[in-house]
Write a structure and sequence with these properties.
Keywords: Membrane, Transferase, Transmembrane, Transmembrane helix. This protein is globular. The C terminus is likely disordered. It has 16 helices and 14 strands. The protein starts with a strand and ends with a helix. The strands form two sheets. It has an eight-stranded mixed sheet, with helices on both faces. Strands 11-10-9-12-13-14 form a six-stranded parallel sheet, with helices on both faces. It has two domains: 170 residues, Glycogen Phosphorylase B (Rossmann fold); 163 residues, Glycogen Phosphorylase B (Rossmann fold), CATH 3.40.50.
Length: 404
């Protein structure tokens, strides 16, 4: 298979220091830069000029003076797409903000388009009516005018099948970059709660992540500490939550931690990981927790249930949280954590993820129509399900044999 020039569009950039798409980009470059020539678009607002690099991990970096998130993401993605038309064979577009550009790209150029729609972005509570309207339109255009669209979760695939009558390809995130770190004396001095059992959660402080419900539940469980890491000061909502619950002695509300080792010390030594996300698909933070072998108490939506294969513990209300925390034994937590790790080792490794992206890159370059990627490409989902029953290497071997 020949090498391709691949533009990765829609992320904050490299080096990765933000979220799931950035981590995905870093590991795609790490695993596939010997096979493809990558260019990654970066937002200059996150990388001061004095610290910018021309290349990172084998990928060329292009900086644009716009934000990759919020309203500016539309302009950021559209300009990235226009620039990529000058050289790229494949546009790997992460997110749908620039979806309005894709009909023109597909109809008037020979460039190949792969889109990862992430979660169902337009449903997020943080957006106003106009933003939701635009994101739904952009999602529709991205799915219709890409040569392959990716869902990171079986539940998202079901959504695209019902909404757009398309066969999305399920490719989740890896979590095996998260590793357990020992607690040192220095850590205990800095974080005294490490000396006792505690629950843990890391997320953006937004209503859709059920932060109020989780904080209220643990505020009524004074004997069970909760450590919650998030961007409290980035919004009025976050500041309100911190002001309301910051004085509770068992609630430890920490600012964002970007050092992966420090985060893994706090996350990897908790007795349960609380996952409150109600939107999105396969949330990277959940996959990372599962890879660490942490017991998981997750909000009971279809995305989380699909990620955890229905084997996590789930909650829907504040009382559910309190009941589960009080009534689950240490042995039960351990057993559940082992089950989460077994799933992660089968499904959520960067080697598996990179191989699937590599296959799609080559597939779109040898096909002319989205529906004709390959005679058997519609079997992609069945192969992912096979992966749940077999070891991931055996599943990948079967996947390639069936496609070839």
């Amino acid at each position: 298979m020949s090498s391709k020039k691949v533009a990765i569009i829609g992320t904050v950039g490299l080096p990765a220091c933000y979220g799931g798409f950035e981590t995905l980009t870093a590991y795609l470059v790490k695993h596939l830069s010997q096979e493809h020539d990558f260019t990654v678009y970066c937002t200059g607002k996150r990388y001061p000029k004095a610290q910018r690099q021309s290349h990172c991990g084998g990928a060329r970096l292009v900086f644009l003076p716009f934000d990759a998130n919020g309203i500016q993401s539309i302009l950021y993605d559209c300009l990235s797409i226009l620039h990529a038309l000058l050289y790229a064979d494949v546009l790997l577009v992460l997110g749908v903000s620039g979806g309005i550009m894709l009909p023109f790209v597909k109809l008037f150029t020979k460039k190949k388009i792969i889109v990862s729609i992430d979660g169902i972005e337009w449903r997020r509570a943080k957006w106003n009516f106009l933003a939701r309207w635009y994101l739904r339109l952009a999602e529709s255009l991205a799915v219709r005018f890409s040569h392959a669209d990716i869902s990171d979760n079986d539940a998202i695939q079901d959504y695209t099948a019902q909404t757009y009558s398309t066969r999305s390809r399920v490719v989740e995130y890896g979590g095996d970059h998260a590793t357990r770190q020992p607690i040192t004396q220095e850590h205990k001095i800095r974080y005294p709660f490490l000396c006792h059992p505690y629950a843990f959660k890391v997320c953006r402080i937004e209503p859709e992540n059920n932060v109020p419900m989780i904080l209220a539940a643990f505020a009524e469980l004074p004997e069970y500490p909760l450590v919650l890491v998030g961007n409290w000061n980035n919004s009025e909502f976050g500041r309100t939550m911190k002001a309301r619950y910051g004085s509770c002695p068992n609630l430890h509300l920490l600012d964002p931690i970007y050092d992966q080792n420090e985060l893994n010390v706090l996350r990897g030594n908790c007795f349960v990981y609380v996952h409150g996300h109600s939107a999105g698909g396969t949330n990277p933070s959940l996959v990372e927790a599962m890879s660490l072998g942490l017991p998981v108490l997750a909000f009971g939506v279809s995305f989380n249930k699909a990620t955890a294969e229905h084997k996590a513990l789930f909650f829907s209300t504040q009382d559910d949280i309190k009941t589960t925390i009080k009534n689950t034994t240490f042995a039960q937590w351990q057993q559940q954590g082992a089950a989460m790790q077994a799933i992660a080792r089968r499904r959520y490794t960067w080697d598996v993820v990179a191989r699937k992206y590599n296959y799609l890159i080559h597939s779109v370059c040898t096909a002319t129509e989205k529906g004709g990627l390959h005679p058997r490409l519609s079997q992609f989902s069945q192969e992912v399900l096979l992966q749940n029953q077999l070891g991931h290497y055996q599943a990948l071997n079967m996947f390639y044999e069936n496609e070839g």
